[in-house]
Amino acid sequence: MPKIKSLSNACKVSFSPDGPISDEALERVRALLDEIRPIDVGLDNEAQIARNWNNSTRQPNGRRGRNGANQFTSPIKYLHIHESESFSMGIFCMPPSSVIPLHNHPGMTVLSKLLYGTLHAESYDWIDVTDPTDQLQELSVRPARLVRDREMSAPETTILYPNRGGNIHTFRAITPCALFDVLSPPYSAEKGRDCSYFRKSSVRETPPVVLPGEINSAEVIWLEELEDHQPPEGFVVARGLYKGPVIRR
Asked: Is 55 helix (H, G, I), strand (E, B) or coil?
């Protein structure tokens, strides 16, 4: 049986519309995701290109054409694999220097496998504040703490949870790379799981709040949600063609 189908079968019995049924079930899915390689999802050629990619032949904001002039990089592509009420699977193929902006996964558990390439990951978790002040609510900002700020190189698998592990995160591709995401449950605006985008707040004076005792104020960053769940201007994701084994319902 193809590895991607084994992964899908494990997801079907391990995830519910409320997320993973147990820690053990989640670990089974993670172990199978660890085994997925680019060739298992039809990306062997793209992975080979990434392995041969040479930073010196391309500019940070583009790629060289035949005449040596810079060209704009191609957009990020999303390869949809499968979705049910309990989970979804898909792959983001990112050209060098492309960015998936700061966003969240409300009420969701997410497993991410870097199939090939290298990227920089920056992630945050919300800091719970009891009895937020009127100033904090008026500014529409929330405090968060840094969870991860480092490079990731394939193959690497991470897990984030609804309230920990870096649920709010951003990725910047250093080389061509592909990120395989398994979400449980999937995004659903109707069920309150719409994707929101954020920016680091420009507030100059820190709103007065009482932070939990274990939080160092130096670790705190203030995040502001963009309006109407809209991504930052210029962020484009194109639909790509998934060439791996088809997952039947």
From this structure: helix
Cis peptide before 185 (omega within 30 of 0): yes
3-class secondary structure, 175: coil
31 vs 224, residue with greater confidence: 31
User: Smallest Cα–Cα separation from 33: which of 159, 199, 175, 165?
Assistant: 159
**CATH classification for the domain delimited by 1-49+72-237, as one of 3.30.360.10, 2.30.30.50, 3.30.70.250, 2.60.120.10:** 2.60.120.10
**b (16+ CB within 10 A) / e for 109-131:** bbbbbbbbbbbebbbbbebebee
Strands 76-83 and 237-239: parallel
Q: State mean pLDDT over 2-22.
A: 96
Cα–Cα distance, 200 to 195 (Å, whole number): 17
Q: Domain limits of the chain?
A: 1-49+72-237
Name the 3-class secondary structure at 245: coil
Q: Work out the percent of the chain whose per-residue pLDDT is above 90.
A: 64
Give pLDDT, residue 187.
95
Q: Is residue 113 scored above 70 in pLDDT?
A: yes
pLDDT value for 59: 46
Please, what is the average pLDDT of the chain? 85
